[in-house]
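Let us practice reading a record.
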Amino acid sequence: MRRVVITGLGVVSPIGCRLDAFWKNCVAGKSGIKTVERIDLSDFPVKIGGEITDFDPHDWLERKEAKNLDPYAHFAVAAAEMAREDSNLELTNPDRVGCILGSGIGGLQEIEQQSHRLYSRGPGRVSPFFVPKMMLNAAPGNIAIRWGIRGPNFATASACTSSGHAIGVALDQIRLGRADVIFTGGTEGALERLGMAGFCSLRALSRRNDEPERASRPFDKDRDGFVLGEGAGVLVAEELEHAKKRGARIYCELIGYGMSDDGHHITAPQPEGLGAKASMRLALEDSGVTPERVTYINAHGTSTEFNDSAESRAIRGVFGDHADKLAVSSTKSMIGHLLGASGGVEAVVSALAVQNDLAPPTINYDTPDPDCDLDYVPNEARSMPMDVVLSNSFGFGGHNATVAFGKFRNGDDA
């Protein structure tokens, strides 16, 4: 089987829009949650979010290009360009290069703005760019056009599992010989009035408006909901021999993935985490590693009552006694929930964790919850040897995906 490695990383997030700044803040446990300023939430019960404030699309796109893309695609293009630069990759064989990205919603800002035009000014005033701006596949499609790449190219849509599915499919495409390089991960720009209103109506969001930096608190007993964020995470997944031939720097190896569904409820996880267990077990099986080799799990860890307890039970159900030796943390404590982009950003974190032998913290962890009884790397990053790292993504619809990363070894075994 063709081996796949990670040779480039790019990220746009509430704690940094460059890889070095993002990782520095992630390790330091810095919160990117604040009172939202870009949109008016004065009439909303929730006024906080993981808003990106230091990103200018014109750093990456010509003004005309930027005007014709929704913010979720701006984030994707920027993160992909960063990943390409980071990998020092020259696209000499565009037929063998692809782009597979996940997004839960796509161009929500464009949907909201053009809907307002339709009902306030009539159908003739809806922009001719509406459909190509809002469609979910606009992000990978525009990246392909930008670079002239002609390999596998599409978007995955499975709510908050979208990026995990994208990365898993990208891994298979390279294993099967259908591409040598695939840009993969996810992007989301749902921090808009319409998106916030929907999640407020679900009563899914934290209402700690007076202390936004402490609002996202995965696995903590006093958690009261997730915090909506925005951004993108893109990885360069590359066939090993292709990477070695060009002398690429290798972060880690992408060794396997698993997918499942709860078959239980459209928004609530199966209480015992049965689908999550299946996803993790399948990832281990696909990777050919034993549970005892896993050292760290980047958890889905949303900061909601039911998700955190179900994921904790699932981890204990898969790993048994070894669960007590695992480090488990949630990046969402710092950046909020990026929906379909979460798995992309968290895959970037997982690759860096493997490379640096460092587990980032779960911040705002103050009061243990008896239903969440694992080591959540509370409040401070931890240096530790990394062998195999799992990244979990779970989403509405009962979707589950687990991606496995391993320390790169140049021999026959991952």
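A brief commentary: The first strand starts at residue 4 and ends at 12.
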